[in-house]
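Quick start: read one record
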Amino acid sequence: MNRINEKLQASKKLLSIYFTAGFPSLNDTVSVIEALEASGVDFVEIGLPFSDPLADGPTIQASSTKALKNGMTTAILFEQLKDIRKKVAIPLIIMGYFNPIMQYGVTKFCKKCAEIGIDGLIIPDLPVQEYHSEYKAIFEKYGLINVFLITPQTSEKRIRFIDEISNGFIYMVSSASVTGAKNTFGNTQSSYFERIANLNLKSPQIVGFGISNSETFKQATTYAKGAIIGSAFVKHLDTFGVSGIASFVKKIR
């Protein structure tokens, strides 16, 4: 069984942390992952930096710019992660845009992910229909879960199609905006979380965008299986470095 599916069976609410590979320093990638696992995080989303992001807010954009200036590339990331499964056991997901994956070669990319122990991919700009018709067989051949995003504006018909073809969790974007930390969620987001829960989908939902502290984590997981923290963690990592990771996670739950 894929590590993501194993983790989704846990009775607790799940915490996923996103960070940008090669940030703050080029060779921090593995150290960040190891520290996150040691701190009790359930998933790690490894951001593949890209020069022209679509959904990233200013904090993650800045981290991607820094990582690229540090010299991070797809090939370097795979080299850094080649022995990662000798060190960590939790699910690892690469999150990035489709352009670098296409440049690397989709089949080659998926094969490499399988070789080093990556469990899934999140590709915000890969259309669901295109994935289903063109790439699903490749992902499945290499045992990779593709995680799809939904937003408050996603139609029920599309949500149910995504649920049907998903074999992991659904990434539930909290609001129609770019990534960025918030101190609390309003009634609009709470109603959205409840509405999706009432659809009784087969795929668990994990909420992303706007999770920054214990309050937003609890709000996001009232109905959902878990929550993802990105911008708030990246900002903390930039300020306190790898040594400050445990203190950040401890404050969330």
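Residues 128-141 form the longest helix (14 residues).
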